[in-house]
Amino acid sequence: MSAAIPTYHIIGAGIAGLACAYEIKKRNKNIRTVVYEAAHKLGGRAYSYDDKDLGRRLDNATHALIGANKNMARFIGRTEWEKQIYFWDAEKDILSGQIQRFAAHVLKSMCNTPPSQIARDIIRKILWLTFPWTGGKRKLYFSRQNLSQKFANFFQSSVDELKFDHKLLKIDSQFCKVAQLNFGSEIIEIGPEDVVILAVDNRSYARLMNEPELPHHAIINIFYQTSQKITLPRNANFIGVVNGLADWIFVNDDILAVTISAADTLAMDLQELARQTWKELDKLRGVNSAFVPTFKILCHKHATISQDEVTNSLRPANAHGKYPNLFLAGDWTMQNYPCCMESAYLSAKRAVKTIFKDKKR
Ligand SMILES: Cc1cc2nc3c(=O)[nH]c(=O)nc-3n(C[C@H](O)[C@H](O)[C@H](O)COP(=O)(O)OP(=O)(O)OC[C@H]3O[C@@H](n4cnc5c(N)ncnc54)[C@H](O)[C@@H]3O)c2cc1C
């Protein structure tokens, strides 16, 4: 008699959850993968949506990758993204292409944490990955819209069943194992060979497991809709800003997008912030706009966990959950890594590797 085919239940359709399905299928096509997602969209914190105010599809943020983010680059495709990178010092009004001079700025964006607070081990990791002094790898790449679709295209064949609007409310255990997943309207029984992977953000994890929530930092994105494509100096499509309000400026057709990392200390009213930032953009372009174009502000209050020394030490050191059939994935679970799309992917790889190793025993 052949053994029953196990189901691997994945909670969360962010990059970590979707990558778990992909990694499972890579190892064993016969395992059934079911992904449960609280929202009605793919991608978690990297998503696309139809913005009614601007009348077009937007990504929640222009996501950046570094050259060393090989896994994510494969999924999203990087050839179209490659560009020389320029930084503008808003105070001194100097534009430069020397990324080394702006290392602190790059660290702040990559860790969404004020540079002086970033854990040393994470800095070490980033320097190693970003500036290997061999050239080539220190390039930055930026997503060119429609992230959700890109993830859907890449991962969909790995997910046997995708259940949207399924928010996990409670994990019920019996005999020290996960026995049931409670989604309110549906209860899922966990079979003896089944596995549960929690690939949720830290706040959801804390609620589900009754653990303290880690501190987070905000990221603000402002999307200005211009009547025609704005030209940035040196014809760049993106520019890093130091000593200004913005951290990054991106041009994509009629949208000029601005990203501000570690934005929780900004005391300004958001509408005022958008107006002041537009003035900064005027200065960069050497113009004096008559009015501020229509804009949309997205504030992700809990964009990533803080990547300071203490918080980093509280991140899980491995993929094991509280029960032997429960595993963890998600950007925040990778100690000593910046919280980013690549670490979300790497956490999935680690979780699946751990599961298969445990099963062999
Ligand atoms: C504004 C912004 C800008 C960013 N910029 C960059 C960047 O430039 N480069 C970069 O690499 N990274 C960037 N990041 C970080 C990157 O988006 C995240 O690190 C990555 O997407 C995290 O993926 P994840 O799968 O670990 O978590 P998530 O994307 O948070 O996925 C978790 C999923 O679980 C679901 N979920 C939660 N609770 C439950 C529940 N109880 N039941 C069912 N489902 C649940 C959530 O809805 C979500 O879909 C940015 C993030 C933000 C917010």
Write up what this structure looks like:
It contains nine helices and 19 strands. It has 361 residues and is of the alpha/beta class. The chain folds into two domains: 159 residues, FAD/NAD(P)-binding domain, CATH 3.50.50; 187 residues, Polyamine Oxidase, Chain A, domain 2. Strands 7-6-15-16-17-14-18 form a seven-stranded mixed beta sheet, with helices on both faces. Strands 9-2-1-13-19 form a five-stranded parallel beta sheet, covered by helices on one side. It has a three-stranded antiparallel beta sheet with strand order 10-11-12, with no helix packed on it. A hairpin with a 2-residue loop joins strand 10 and strand 11. It binds flavin-adenine dinucleotide. The site of flavin-adenine dinucleotide (FAD) has 38 residues, from helix 1, strand 5, strand 14, strand 18 and helix 9.
Envelope shape: elongated
CATH architecture of the largest domain: Alpha-Beta Complex
Q: What is the CATH third-level topology name of the largest domain?
A: Polyamine Oxidase, Chain A, domain 2
Residue windows where pLDDT falls under 50 for at least 5 positions: none
The radius of gyration over CA amounts to 21 Å
What is the helix/strand order? Answer: EHEEEEHEEHHEHEEEEEHEEEEHEHEH
Please identify the top-level CATH class of the largest domain: Alpha Beta
| Number of H- or I-type helical stretches | 9
Q: Report how far the terminal alpha carbons are from each other.
A: 22 Å
Q: What percent of residues are in strands?
A: 25-35%
How many domains make up the 3D coordinates?
2
Q: What number is the mean pLDDT?
A: 90
Write down how many β-strands occur, each being a DSSP E stretch of 2 or more residues: 19
Major sheet details: 7 strands, mixed
The ligands bound in this entry are: flavin-adenine dinucleotide
Helix percentage:
25-40%
Order of strands in the sheet with most strands: 7-6-15-16-17-14-18
The structure class reads alpha/beta
